[in-house]
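Researcher: We're reviewing a set of sequences before deciding which ones to prioritize for further study. For each one, I'd like a predicted 3D structure that I can look through quickly. This is Contactin-associated protein-like 5. If possible, include the structure in token form so it fits the rest of the review sheet.
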Amino acid sequence: TVSESQCTLRKIIFLTGDSCLDYLSVWGCVRVCLSIYSCCVTPSHARSLFAPSCPEMFFLSLVSGAGGWSPQVTDRQPWLQLDLRDRMEVTAVATQGHYGSSDWVSGYLLLFSDTGLAWKQYRQEDGVGRFVGNVNADGVVHHKLSHSIRSRFLRFVPLDWNPSGWVGLRVEVYGCAYKSYVADFDGRSSLLYRFNQKSMSTVKDVISLRFKSRQAEGVLLHGEGQRGDYITLELHRGRLALYLNLDDTRLRFSSGRVAVTLGSLLDDQHWHSVLIERFNKQVNLTVDTHTQHFRTKGEGDSLDVDYELSFGGIPLPGKPGTFLRKNFHGCIENLYYNGINIIDLAKRRKPQIYSGNVTFSCSQPQLVSTTFLSSSSSFLSLPATPSASGGFTVRFQFRTWNPDGLLLSTQLSLEPQRLELQISNSRLRLTHHTSAQQKEEVSTGHRVNDGLWHTVSLGSRSLQVTMTLDNEPSSTIELADHMDAGDNLYFGGKRTDNMTNTSLGCENPTLAFQGCMRLISINSQPMDLNQVQQGRLGKYKELQFDTCGIHDRCLPNFCEHGGQCSQSWNTFYCDCSGTGYAGATCHNSIYEASCEAYRLTGSSSGYFSIDPDGSGPLGATQVFCNMTEDKVWTVVTHNSTDPVRVQGSTLQKPYVMKFNYSASPEQLMALVAGSEQCQQEVVYSCRKSRLFNTWDGSPLSWWVDQGGERRTYWGGFLPGVQQCSCSLEENCMDMNYFCNCDADTDSWANDTGVLSYKEHLPVSEIVIGDTNRTGSEALYRIGPLRCYGDKSVWNAASFYQESSYLHFPTLQAELSADISFYFKTSVPSGVFLEDLGLKDFIRVELSSPSVVTFSFDVGNGGVVLAVKSHVPLNDRQWHYVRAERNVKEASLQVDQLPLRFLEAPSDGHLRLRLNSQLFVGGTAARQRGFMGCIRTLNINGMTFNLEERAKMTPGVSAGCPGHCSGSSSLCHNRGRCIEKNSGYVCDCSQSAYGGPSCKEEVSVSFDRESSVTYTFQEPFSVMQNRSSQASRVYRESTRARENMAFSFMTTQSPAMLLTVSTFSQQYIAVILALNGSLQIWYRLHVYRKPDVFSPSPSSLADGRLHRIRIHRQGKDVYLQVRGENFDEEVMQAGSKGFIGCLSSVQFNHVAPLKAALLNRGSSLVSVRGHLVESNCGVLADSTTSHPLSANKDKEQQGNDTRHDSAVIGGVVTAVVFITLCVVVVMTRFLYQHRQAQRDASIKEKEHRHNLETAYRREVSNTHVGLHCIAARKGM
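Model: Here's the predicted structure for Contactin-associated protein-like 5, in token form for your review sheet.
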């Protein structure tokens, strides 16, 4: 073995080969290729490899070419460690296999450490920890690090290797020297930087530093001024909080100071960088790689700080060593305040720096963590060393995100008694099992799965077992006899009885612990986990030593539109409640994009929430949809709809009214842009009040458009023409003027007109300036904004050459993309759209006459989702496609076929990086192009104008031939337009309406003894995506949705309208209460009281027709035909049977009442009693129809964890109570996720063209019963 000095001579080698020089220009500074000082092969064979050949044999492409590292085959968890002898800045790494062998590493982790004891895993962009390695022994694979590593030690941990060989590795790292000014703070120390003058006033500040902390709390920086300014940077619960205020004394003396927080898990004893940049009120806060932009509070632009800035704590004036807040405990390096090196001044003892108990080298605590990797099989077994005083004590620290997990278990000396310490529902619970059936429990803590370190102590003494968590009071269990712990203590999980030394596993009473532990001591003896790692102490499985692998998956927050992020160890979840959006990342709006879309779903006039840009950044807004005419009008009101009288205004002091609409300016702009036409009426009456100066024609009054531009035309005239409607119609009272008001008469004149140039609408402001003369006045009223049509619905292009395509700018869809469109074709295959990157891509295509595929690659391997139709899709009819990909999952929907889902890998690449143009109807290679029609192409809420681009593209024409391709709605209420050679027909089979255009209501009157039972067979067999191209890291599943709609008329209450019940006594019920008001009952948790929602207090038992629509979209609902157990009030509502009328009943794509009338001979329909067709729905529509839509965001917990995919069948019967009662009966076959299920929202949404029949897994020959029976007592 050579001496250390010999190894030091070989520490840094300047390579002259291409391997290093190729990188000199890339890394941006003079770089050296760093060699190896030491290398540890395996913890179980820790030995020095400082032989003369050791440094050379691990380098890439040396002249000798020989060597490489390979651990012994018997080594568990081998790794290769590099000591750079000092902290260096590493910017790249490269690997090769073992020279002249079949040994190489195909995937590895990279860890780094300052001490060689506590390690941290390096994560690339997107949080990916895995590095792609080699595919042979000789090739070199380089990785430029997205952010450099400043560390002394590096560790390469092989994950995968050549299956036909073994682990073989040669490495090279690239970097340069790193200089650091370090200060160590012991929790009682601080640095004070005193200004040369009394106060320091700045309009621009730049503060930068790096720190590593031993605790989750502590002040890093503080300064304040007498007028109320302050700046404070502190750690709070492992996150960095910045308090900044400029000249606002109210905030200084209030307790409501608001912090901007960033970062997470910053108490991990590893370095983190901070940068604060401020100019006036604009501030950028950067922590590591995350930046937040914000605007400060206060009235000033400068930060005034008196006397000094303190670092590491907030000292109390006049009392040295006394601090107002908890001090920082850890190290700070390279601390710069506006270009001043604070630590360098302190080291040189400059007079403006006061350093209290600060040292200038970073002490290294010996806090080494261990990570429990698996929630099913991880465990650590340690011997229970005897205690001299009897009993036992165990103490350790843990941190995790999981709400459940077994922390510790031991068999007690008196069998079969045992103790178990576990996290249960985010609390710490100690259980003493006295026998197989008896146990005692105590609990403590709250949200112990918050990712922070928690200290737990467990001790047995004097017939008591005591549990203590952090600083909370102890909890105690009384024992009948004195007892000791068994021979072994099991941490994180339990070893099964049938294990051997070579076969270790973990039984799973709940879940094994998944998280980090450290500072384990048994009977006051610290446990050396290095000995465990080397096989000298205890047993273990699925552990990672020397590091805490916790990772904050909510940073950054991938939940869109304000969704709340929560997480477990392996994944994150989004709570979309109250956002108006749904989906795994709250990406999809639950509302339609326009009133036209609501009409296509069968809705009637009323107030609706529309989301003009769908999944885009704009939220939903409420509008009135007027559907009484052929055109569907969208009406948006503002704050001043009544007539307003104006007097006393001049051009110098005009009257000004600004209009605030019920939608934001951005929403209005999107609404107007997406409409075919918009208009706004301006009612303007005047007396001796002119609109234009009669001498020079300059305007005396005007209005302001949506862009803030002044407009002087009144009425439908073209922009720029200063005229009114009377001039257009040639009926002005004085033809010498272009406006009636300009005649300036003593009598009232009228210049009312309709503004119809939609690019200028709506009117945002009106200015009136000529009402100050005697007898002069004006009266105006600005009507609501009214728009009709949806330009996107029928925006189409026809492709008639295979090599033709439309091209658009690169798709901006790094983190999420939803793509929807309609197509019709007669060809068997073709690519709908494609966008490419260097390696990434996204593509949607018709791969065969009955299969649509959605494929993409974000760096985790190619993924293919396929939906197969039971009928050909090249039938010259319109078909709907919707594909979505986000960081959580991917999905594909075709017409009403089952929705296909694939879950994304929890630690894979997230960003879809594209750089080519978006090709629609073809590919960049001009092969496999689509021939047919595509319309309504929408991506991420943006509609693509296919018609405009088609006009300038050869091989493509604007629009699409055929009767079913126009903007006129030929088929209503979800009816489907079918092309024929000489015309068209409307397919009303999936509509609750009938007639040639699916507009005629189907109504039925029942008496008490009447009933209808409809049984239908699902047309879809089991269809799984078995494509071999689908990446294994994705997991397939399906999703469930239902839409139910019906109309009813009654005069009696209470009554049940709808109920969905489960075998576990959960239910959703829609009833009329005793006073006739509508109530929606949710009992989604058996052990909780039901939640009751009343959307309207008015009575619906008024003898008029009411339409009800309910949409459910959730992950798990288990349903059964029998065993309903409802609350008393719901039962009373269902027991009041009476005669009435039921109309237009729709369950997904089934209309049971219509089937009962038209198919009485069918085996699917059975009728009991006297059934009479009625026209109550038509009669009600001829008078007044009262639509009622209930929006309800409701959480549905699904916390059961499943470890295997399962198909669960349950039958739900839906009983339609004539007059008031409709109980919908459903069959659901649910795909059960392998991960723990999260909250599901129950929201009202009318989904375009009945695309809600998405089942988690379709089972062939499945029957669903839907019953319509009369309610009677004793039910």
